[in-house]
Amino acid sequence: MISLFRFGGLTRFLCSAWAVQPQENITASCIHKRAISANISPSKTSQSAPFKKLKQHQIGRILRGSTFKKVEAVHLNANNPIEDSFSVGISENMNFAIFSVFDGHLGGECSQYLQNTLNHAISKDLHDCVNMEDDYQLVLNMEQLDQLNDTSSGGLIRLPWRSHAVQEVAQNTLQMCLKDAFLRVDSEFSKPALADVRNVMSGHKMTEEMLDRIMKAQSGACGLTAVVEKDRLFVACTGDCRAVLGFQAEYNWKAINLSTDQNFENAREVRRLQEAHPGEKVVINGRLLGGLAPFRAFGDVNYKWKQEHFEGIFPTYQNYKTPPYLTAEPVVTQRERTNSDKFLILATDGLWDCLSSEHAVSIVAKVMSESDPSCVTEDVSFRTGKNAATHLLYHALGGTDQTVSRMLELEADQRRWFRDDITVLVVYL
Predict the structure, then answer these.
(1) For labeling, which of 9, 116, 144, 412 is most exposed (least CB within 10 Å)?
(2) Residue 172 to residue 53: CA distance in whole angstroms
(3) Mean local confidence (pLDDT), 166-170
(4) Residues 128/132/135/139 CA torsion (nearest 10 deg)
(5) Domains and CATH numbers, the chain
(6) Cα separation, 176 vs 334, whole angstroms
(7) In this predicted model, what pLDDT tens digit does every residue of 400-416 receive, in sequence order?
(8) Assessment of whether the complete model's pTM goes beyond 0.85
(9) Which tens digits make up the pLDDT trace of 271-285?
(10) Cβ 253 vs Cβ 360: under 8 Å
């Protein structure tokens, strides 16, 4: 069986600033990205008033004897309500876990849908891979990660296969399970809306309920999933969330990106789009058709459907000729775990707008090692009671009490001009 933990918001924010704000507004707010102090002091920071405010948004849990040691999470909204979400699933004997973060845009509907469905879909596909005959069951009643303990029995996604059987699944098969689950969930998200559109095209009257479903399908989300086993890590990325591994070689730390942001700075993604739509101007001002920053995403049906399906409902694009322009198919990477793999950071792009991968790893490493200069990775690393995810958030907001206070004091209608929603998971391996 698998335990599921969730938080996030549901909203219809169809005119979200995320999709239309000039990029300069976001990067200008993160000028401190180039000036983060190397003298990170988690003990001193943890006592400050701004940090204590951030702690209201954090949760964490130690899980001894599992395929990972501890998971921490934190989130902070810029949109109201937040459009980010996350989901964590852990097998009954804790030998297998799924971690996901979702970055919604044009509303939180798609992100919320992924939170409730994607990890389940991945689990079901893996169940099918090991050919067990038992039925797949879902029970959802656990809302907070901090409700989990080592003997938790409430709020479970029940997996009727032994979790160690997952380790018998071939690498290529597991990668295919991830891709199939991502694509199937994306299709199912917009399926009711597409049925409504086809009914209207065949002569049915458009009702308010039908229009609501169609408009909700316009929302989108980037998704990032890590499957953690005893000996392997798999990361599936759709969009511009990022997974970074903290790797320790003796006393030196290295940041290893396990995903690559899928945007205009990714030459492979640009080439993929150009080859799929030869002769078309697909990337305009660094965005897909001039509108969308990530080049892969869930939802966003106005980049996927035929134009006649949404003409008169959604805005049309001048260069919209050969859809779909957008896919939810993830890029999947795999890594054999080593003793030097210490932690995994999964975060939405609100964090990476303001912190480099290297800075993020250095912050978590400092939090781990402060109580022990040798940075022993046994439980002594966790006795400090510090939540590294919250320290990452603190530094993303400026890294000083003054800048963090100013960011927290922004009015609701100003926040999105200066920062994005931020969601961070830190998984200690």
Answers:
(1) 412
(2) 44
(3) 57
(4) -70
(5) 2-185+222-260+332-428 (3.60.40.10)
(6) 12
(7) 888 988 888 888 788 88
(8) no
(9) 999 999 999 999 999
(10) no
